[in-house]
Design brief:
10 strands; 198 residues; globular; Glutaredoxin; alpha+beta
Length: 198
């Protein structure tokens, strides 16, 4: 019984539920993180952006891999409308070597990412935003020189099969912002691997 209690306590302590972070309506902070081209990238670098699709993702997670082509398509579709994708890997490479900075470079080149793929080595940005999974979406909108969180959660409702998706949560949210409205659904549960924290 004591062993079971200790195991249960250990699972609870390791679970990401204690991570606080942003809620819809909060103002998000900017950041400066290293891209796979070895250059530092901040959201303030995008003068013409109306907002951002900030996606916490990684190399190794099967959920993240399943969404890569959809993320590229989302970026190509929406960056011309003012909402570019900015992808961030916050996983601890000591726990998951496949998520090292060098492996990020290899993955970005292999998939020909059309968006920056940034390394949150200290995990400060994941902690600040409250990211718990890969992928985990934070849709930001520029309002009065602030970055306001407008949607948090999943990309859609079927990670396994893009052709079987019936609810396009992220696309619907971006389309609402483009139309000058708030997303009808502004929060969903992010489904994916847990972010591997130090």
């Amino acid at each position: 019984m004591k062993t079971l209690l200790l195991i249960t306590l250990g699972i609870m302590m390791s679970a990401p539920d204690f991570i606080s972070g942003y809620k819809v309506g909060d103002t998000a902070r900017d950041f400066s993180l290293k891209n796979v081209d070895d250059k530092m990238v901040s959201l303030s670098d995008y003068d013409n952006a109306k907002g951002f699709v900030v996606i916490f993702t990684c190399n190794h997670c099967p959920f993240s891999k399943a969404y890569e082509d959809r993320i590229i398509a989302l970026d190509k579709k929406y960056k011309t409308k003012g909402y570019p994708v900015v992808a961030i890997n916050s996983n601890d490479a000591e726990i998951v070597p496949e998520d090292s900075y060098q492996k990020m470079i290899e993955r970005a080149n292999e998939k020909d990412f059309s968006f920056p793929y940034l390394y949150d080595e200290t995990q400060e940005i994941a902690d600040t935003y409250g990211a718990t999974n890969t992928p985990h979406i934070f849709l930001l909108n520029k309002e009065n020189n602030k970055l306001v969180v407008k949607y948090i959660g999943a990309i859609d409702n079927n990670y396994q099969d893009a052709s079987a998706v019936t609810e396009h949560y992220l696309s619907d949210a971006i389309n609402a912002l483009i139309a000058g409205k708030n997303p009808e659904k502004d929060f969903t549960k992010a489904i994916g691997c847990s972010i591997k924290r130090k």
